[in-house]
């Protein structure tokens, strides 16, 4: 008999919606929109990824804990971590802002943006339009949209809204069904998650096999489970140049050297 797998993604999304409802009580959407500075300095996430063919671009992630691994690093100073990532040559910084399962916050994102000169990606479970405006108000340069937790209509609306207000978008997929669901929005940056967010099963070959199915002009980013130089090199051999890495960098005793090693630089 097959036991039903607890769907963690659905649980996180349910909780996220509750938290956003509280945020809206505290600060209505009009107030958030008013906080967006149209003159804010924009750093292009897309450009950071579009380097030469030989490059290995690392988006280094600030991730305090995760539902699959528990606490990854006890005390984390987001601003200091961002500076270290930049020193190692990361091309962009991803900041987990989900509070309950990842111990993140928009405060982390704001301080990372101030402390570094790199583009900053807001990594969260974006399931409302409110969070998109909130991302721009917090000075994010890009947002993540996860196909697995959005309906087609939401995916398209949020994608276009984010682009309209000047945010780049990383659209995350995990399998071929999700790949076909994003063909209408035709995103320029496609994150391929090696981890199944419903079951946490992880395989680095997932990004490799799906990347070959993207359009030529779409930039693949391999997400999750990349722990070693060999993992990076393997994907690179299959034409993937962009990697989003959290846990292994967070756990490293010398992240500057580790990021350099992953990039194949001295
Ligand atoms: O820590 P890892 O295995 O290097 O993974 C980083 C990143 O890919 C992962 O944090 C992630 C990918 N997609 C997500 C969606 C929500 C939250 C987290 C994620």
Automatic annotation (TrEMBL):
Family statement: Belongs to the TrpC family.
PANTHER family (UniProt xref): INDOLE-3-GLYCEROL-PHOSPHATE SYNTHASE, TRYPTOPHAN BIOSYNTHESIS PROTEIN
Name this protein carries in UniProt: Indole-3-glycerol phosphate synthase
One GO term of the biological process aspect: L-tryptophan biosynthetic process
The Indole-3-glycerol phosphate synthase domain, residue ranges: 9-262
CDD domains from the UniProt entry: IGPS (cd00331)
Gene that produces this protein: trpC
Pfam families: IGPS
Catalytic activity: 1-(2-carboxyphenylamino)-1-deoxy-D-ribulose 5-phosphate + H(+) = (1S,2R)-1-C-(indol-3-yl)glycerol 3-phosphate + CO2 + H2O
Zinc keyword on record: no
Entry keyword set: Amino-acid biosynthesis, Aromatic amino acid biosynthesis, Decarboxylase, Lyase, Tryptophan biosynthesis
Pathway: Amino-acid biosynthesis; L-tryptophan biosynthesis; L-tryptophan from chorismate: step 4/5
EC number(s) from the headed UniProt entry: 4.1.1.48
Gene Ontology MF, one: phosphoribosylanthranilate isomerase activity
